[in-house]
Amino acid sequence: MKTSDFDYSLPPELIAQTPVEPRDRGRLMVLDRSDGSLKHQRFREIVDYLRAGDVLLFNDSRVIPARLSGKRVDDGGGLEILLLRRLSPGVWETLVRPGKRVKIGTRMEISSDSVNGDSPDFRVTAEAVGLGEGGTRVISFSDETRLPALGKIPLPPYIHVPLPHPERYQTVYANVEGGVAAPTAGLHFTPELIARIKSKGVRCLFVTLHAGLDTFRPVRQDNPLEHPIHREYGLLSQEVADELSQARTEGRRIVCVGTTTVRLLEAVAQAGSPLDIQPFAGWVSLFILPGFQFQVVDALITNFHLPRSTLLMLVSAFAGRDFIRRAYQEAIARQYRFYSFGDAMLIL
After folding, report:
1. N or C: which end of the chain has fewer CB within 10 A?
2. Distances in whole angstroms, Cα of residue 31 to Cα of each of 48, 63, 78, 246
């Protein structure tokens, strides 16, 4: 298995730059693993593929204003900081651009374009205190309580059109702050669609997994097993664990909304028993590649992912590389919209 096995060519015009309105109007490709068929629907028609007794598992992570603007104190050079992971009070793992100019001991000043730049009340000082894997920087902030007021919601680098309403990059059920990227499969759901799903007898449950660096970063190694996976923080409550265990015992389907819920749920199942899901609070670093034995997930709702990404490897593990390759080829031929604001697929 090579990373190039998960590469494909995408016309740039198929990268969705803006979300569709309403949220559930996007397209839905339905992949049936039992017969290898592909069907083309609208996302709101997903109700027709769910049945009473199913468990629909959502990720309620809320994206934080993690993109900060600032400058180096020594020479005034501008920089951008993306918060990735809180390591301790006031200390974060970050991505910095340009990163080569930020070494251990580099002092920075964080400001915001949206406030009066001359006001000391809206400035935070920071210092690089460590170097991490993959070019990350560990930064200590003088007052992290002010960072939300200074930051902006971080859109993915392939989106070049400004988003007038940042809330559109949040799911309608986003609740627990901490993500640096939205769980994008959930962006298709509206309150009305969720109500229709519940009225069909589907149980809607919520877990939390804050998306990390691998959401942005392609695999650069020829052998994907050499790729350092980024840890993500997850939460699964006792109540949800009990309901999932009951569903597994009774043979009811568990349908995951997004790859984030898959990673959390399968990591928890690996640590224990798939028939006795336990509550969880901690770090997840599960890398799912073809050959992985899924223990809990029966169906998956997901968007179309970047070439050479860990997310494309995950869906290939779930549906099969050849099936996913054929689905992506057809999606391109039929001009589906790709990535965060793009269309979705349901893998049964």
Report:
1. N
2. 14, 29, 46, 27
